[in-house]
Amino acid sequence: MSRKRFEIVAWIAYVLINASVNASSVLVDYARNGIQIENWEPFIWEYSSGILILVLIPCVIWFDQYYPLRKGQWKKPLLFHVLASVPFSLAHVAGMVALRKLVYALQGRHYDFGNVPVEFFYEYRKDFLSYFFIIAVVYAYRLYSAKTAGAAYGFNPPITNGSKHFFVKKNGRSVRINQQDIIWVEAAGNYVLLHVGESVHPLRDTMKGIAEQLGPSFLRIHRSAIVNLSKVGARRGTRGGNLTVFLDDSTEIKCSRSARAELERQLASAHPGF
Predict the structure, then answer these.
(1) Which one of 73, 109, 232, 241 is separated from 20 by 20 to 30 angstroms, measured CA to CA?
(2) What is the Cα–Cα distance from 208 to 225, expressed in whole angstroms?
(3) How far apart are CA 25 and CA 31, in angstroms?
(4) Among 231, 176, 230, 169, CA closest to 203
């Protein structure tokens, strides 16, 4: 299973299990208090919330790429994350209420969210914690990945016309990686992730720093992605002017509009008729 597929499955499993446990607890609590509800209602309440959280997780991760929490540089990004928790909660509440109203309507029932300002404040307290729980899990997972995969400790020697490789530490020993074996580079907080075949090697560096060392055969096509131009298999444009790049390992990456012209130019230069 690829790393991204594992991450998706893990988030879905966590949300569904958490929603199921919470819904079961609600049924027990209502029964204890002598309040009668349909058995399906708590599951609709919890699953609607869980579905919206799953939809919003990629948004949180995307936002963190622009405002990563780094050692010594965390105060301003933290403030932006706190502010971002408000639209996060608004989207979560609006989406889950809409889903609940739809399901209740299909059952011939009416769903009442209650006093909107009061209920939103109640939900926002939980959403604030959910937002930063997502951030904490993402950073913990990156740290775990870095420790278990073996972090690259830099180019040795720095890549030049006469040096096309670098070394990573793996289980206490150095492993040589050829520059052209790198398929793409991904931003990950304080690290960049070097995708080499099915392996991923974390490197403590910035996207700007790694781009300068990789040289002209690589191009930064997005704030969080640098691709090896020789590994670009195909590309697909959309009506909105966006571009999706398909790499040799089947990875799909969005190309920013600002980088599209340069990508097209370099590909045309290297592969006429591509």
Answers:
(1) 109
(2) 11
(3) 10
(4) 169
> What is the reported pTM?
0.62
Both structure tokens of 177: 């990686």
Task: Please report, as a single letter, which amino acid is at residue 51.
Answer: I
CB 251, CB 93: distance < 8 Å: no
Q: What local confidence, expressed as pLDDT, does residue 157 receive?
A: 42
Amino acid occupying residue 220: R
SS3 for 250? Answer: coil
Average pLDDT over residues 170-197: 81
Beta bridge partners of 195: 184, 200
**Look-up: residue for tokens 């590994």?**
231
Share of the chain above pLDDT 90, in %: 45
Domains (range + CATH), the chain = 3-149 (no CATH), 165-270 (2.40.50.1020)
Q: Which residues pair with 254 in a beta bridge?
A: 244
Q: Are 214 and 205 in contact (CB under 8 A)?
A: no
* pLDDT per residue as tens digits for the range 123-135: 999 999 999 999 9
- Of 159, 84, 164, give the one whose Cα is nearest residue 127: 84
**Cα 100 from Cα 47, distance rounded (Å):** 9
CA distance linking residue 183 with residue 229, whole number of Å: 9
3-state class (DSSP) for residue 220: strand
Token pair for residue 254?
């969005």
- The mean per-residue pLDDT over the stretch 189-202 comes to 81
Helix segments in 150-228, DSSP class H: 207-214
Instruction: Return d(Cα 265, Cα 274) in angstroms, integer.
Output: 10
